[in-house]
Amino acid sequence: MKQYNVGIIGATGMVGQRFATLLENHPWFNVKVLAASPRSAGQTYEQAAGSRWKMAVPMPAAMKDMVLMDATNDIEKIAGMVDFCFCAVDMKKDEIKALEEAYAKAECPIVSNNSAHRFTPDVPMVVPEINPEHIEIIKAQRERLGTKRGFIAVKSNCSIQSYVPALHPLRKFGLKNVLACTYQAISGAGKNFETWPEMVDNLIPYIGGEEEKSEQEPLKVWGEIKGNEIVKATAPNITTQCLRVPVSDGHTAAVFVTFENKPSKEEILKLWADFKGVPQELQLPSAPKQFIHYFEENDRPQAKLDRNLEGGMAVSTGRLREDTQYDYKFVCLSHNTLRGAAGGGVLLAELLAAKGYFD
């Protein structure tokens, strides 16, 4: 496979740090640029992020002495040094939209972890195993932007990465109503227990904007390209409740679902076991061999035990049983900063690379 030079925009934040660790020994992608805010620009990565390094593994040695570039003022220079960039910045939504479009118009493709462009009609929001065909909208986006290479592709919110993969193979039975209660780790807020001691022995029953994302984003993921835009699916009806819980990593969801045509439990389990997407078919470097794992034990999946399954890129399910109000209920888990954030971004970039979008 061809080698690509890449940049990380927002390299000092938690997701940026995760990108750095995932890309350290990547077989296709070589990190050539680290960029951050103007206040960090000019410092080495170690100077800027060393004291607030949140990863369990050390800062990549090859990146420690890299001098951070200015993410907002060095766009043209960065675009000339890389084939594409990952973006995970902490800015206002309108500022992120403008920044990512500026990179795209400078002919630097952007693979974004940010939410700003998720509902831009011609920006694909991709879970690679579920809707890889949505990257075909990039042609229309390039026409709108007036670019030859530049574009923006985004990954979906971390909250939907556990239950949407589990529901996706079941769409053949007609998903009708879905209730999902998510129990989300503190790393989803860019925190750990040292920086957020208030979360020890605590639960917060509100995460700003999360329920709206969790209800609407699946419909775009399950939508279809019509003309120059992605049109959202009209079903199922989804309602969610999102809670912040005292867990370091791993988002869990309790899911209740009603079908147009109720399947048997055995049919559901077989679909989960057999499901493979394009990343598995292409054997992309970050793709889990088995996307959906089912645990028979009543006390699984557990965040501490199962979040790192297949490098944190697999989805764990368990406790599938019939319900008195809905047809079925089950529990699922995904690693929110791997499958749900940087890892999902890297997998999306691998898909785009394999399909020639960076060439």
TrEMBL record:
Active site: 158 (acyl-thioester intermediate), 251 (proton acceptor)
GO molecular function: aspartate-semialdehyde dehydrogenase activity; NAD binding; NADP binding; protein dimerization activity
One Pfam short name: Semialdhyde_dhC
Keyword Oxidoreductase: yes
Gene3D superfamilies: Dihydrodipicolinate Reductase, domain 2, NAD(P)-binding Rossmann-like Domain
Any one GO BP annotation for this protein: threonine biosynthetic process
Domain Semialdehyde dehydrogenase NAD-binding: from-to ranges: 5-138
Keywords (A to Z) from UniProt: NADP, Oxidoreductase
Family assignment from sequence similarity: Belongs to the aspartate-semialdehyde dehydrogenase family.
PANTHER family, per database record: ASPARTATE-SEMIALDEHYDE DEHYDROGENASE
Name listed for the protein in its UniProt record: Aspartate-semialdehyde dehydrogenase
